[in-house]
Amino acid sequence: MSTSEENKSGTRLDKWLWAARFFKTRQLAVDAVNAGRVEVHGERVKPAKTIKPGDDLLLRKPPVEYRLVVKAVSEKRGSALIARTMFVESAESIAAREKVVAELREMPPPLFRGRPTKKDRRTLEQWQRNADSVNDVDG
After folding, report:
1. Interior CA angle at 66 toward 62 and 71, to 5°?
2. Structural domain total, the chain
3. SS3 1
4. How far is C-alpha 10 from the geometric centre of its chain's CA atoms?
5. Residues 88, 71: contact at Cβ < 8 Å?
6. Is 73 part of any domain?
7. DSSP letter string over 53-75?
8. Which residues have C-beta within 8 Å of that of residue 56, sequence separation ≥ 6?
9. Distance from the CA of 60 to the CA of which of 8, 15, 34, 38 falls in 20 to 30 A?
């Protein structure tokens, strides 16, 4: 099917989200649509919803939201340069997304990184035992 034929007939929402590179796999796109994170014209839809140029999308990928207008449809995943031409993001959406990203950058790093070590786990267990023994004496 040529690009002009695809533009006339539209394509499935999950395929479009995958081809526009919002998700690495179609299954991740399906899961997001089923979870209610994607709206077309303000309504929750199913993954098989047909998307056509001009459709308005709201895509939530916490902690950010994308407000998009579909410019082109494709069922094939191409390069990132091609994917960028498939939609236009609203100016308000870009500003809000950049604000959220800036806030996240300014947050302090997490206290614990990754899985605790064996020593960390033993220290935590010892602290919990001591806290329980103090509570038993008080109670």
Report:
1. 145
2. 1
3. coil
4. 23
5. yes
6. yes
7. TT-EEEEEETTEEEEEEE----S
8. 40, 41, 42, 67, 68, 69, 70
9. 8
Q: Among all chains, which residue has been given the structure tokens 């604000």?
A: 99
pTM score = 0.73
Range(s) of the domain holding residue 34: 3-108
pLDDT in tens, 55-97: 999 999 999 999 999 999 998 999 999 999 999 999 999 999 9
42 to each of 55, 68, 125, how far by Cα in Å?
10, 12, 49
| Residue 31: both structure tokens together | 């899961």
Encode pLDDT of 7-62 as tens digits: 467 899 999 999 999 999 999 999 999 999 999 999 999 999 999 999 999 999 99
Residue 24, domain CATH: 3.10.290.10
Q: Is residue 128 part of a domain?
A: no
Residue 12 pairs with which residues in a beta bridge? 50
In a domain, 137, yes or no: no
